[in-house]
Amino acid sequence: MNRYITLLHFTEQGAKHINKSTKRAHDFAALAEKAGVTIENEFWTVGGFDGVLIIRADDEKKALHLLVELAAAGNVRTETLRAFTAEEFDAVIAG
């Protein structure tokens, strides 16, 4: 399964309705489950980013489609990174 780390910034709309942020996260989790994507964890943060989302999916298209839907809702802007465990990265290095 591929793992992705998504960094989140609230949009003006998302910040204006920040009190609904955790409800939106629960709704997103239900959408992810239907799409066959696992949410490993999610965090609200302070500093350069407003949140971090860690997801896993066996199909990259499923994961990216889900993240496109998240961005299209208009509450966050996303920056997504493919993430590897040490074992996965060793396999990449080995070729």
List the helices and strands and how they pair.
Blueprint: E1 2-10, H1 12-16, H2 21-35, E2 38-44, E3 51-57, H3 60-72, E4 76-83, H4 86-94
Antiparallel strand pairs: 1-3, 1-4, 2-3
Helix pairs in contact: 2-3
Could you name the key traits of this structure?
95 residues; alpha+beta; Alpha-Beta Plaits; four-stranded antiparallel sheet; 44% helix; globular
Measured as a percent range, the helix fraction is 40-55%
Q: Which architecture would the CATH scheme give at its second level?
A: 2-Layer Sandwich
Q: What proportion of the residues form beta strands (DSSP E)?
A: 25-35%
Largest sheet: 4 strands, antiparallel
Report on the architecture of this protein:
- This protein has 95 residues and is an alpha+beta fold.
- It has a single domain (2-94), classed as Alpha-Beta Plaits.
- The protein is built from 4 helices and 4 strands, in the order E-H-H-E-E-H-E-H.
- A 4-stranded antiparallel β-sheet has the order 2-3-1-4.
- Strand 2 and strand 3 form a beta hairpin.
- Helix 2 (21-35) runs antiparallel to helix 3 (60-72).
- The chain starts with a strand and ends with a helix.
- The model has no long low-confidence stretch (mean pLDDT 96).
